[in-house]
Amino acid sequence: MQSTNMQPLTGKELEYIVDSISNEELLLKQCTATAASIQHPAIQQACLQFARTHENHLNLLSNALQQHQQLAPMQPQQ
Q1: Contact 17/9 with Cβ under 8 angstroms?
Q2: pTM exceeds 0.70 for this model
């Protein structure tokens, strides 16, 4: 999608993205910590794969915010 076709995000959409970023950060940390404490190699690899998935989600959400940053109004909407 080209940025010229994008609409500014609503306040509610921004809240959802920020909440999702927080959730993905927490899940990433939990998966990484669990992988570090697991002795079983297969389970450790599964946890690391989950961590990579959450890291990808985090990157996608952050990129979405960056793409919409240029469309954000300069003054807060009332």
Answers
A1: yes
A2: yes
Beta strands in the chain (DSSP E): none
Question: Which residues fall within 8 angstroms of residue 5, CB to CB, at 6 or more apart?
Answer: none
Phi, then psi, of 2 in degrees rounded to 5: -85, 145
Q: Comparing C-alpha atoms, which of 10, 2, 29 is closest to residue 72?
A: 10
Q: How far apart are CA 53 and CA 30, in angstroms?
A: 13
Please tell me the predicted confidence (pLDDT) of residue 4.
57
pLDDT tens digits along 27-66: 999 999 999 999 999 999 999 999 999 999 999 999 988 8
Spatial distance between the Cα atoms of 77 and 56, rounded to a whole number of angstroms = 31
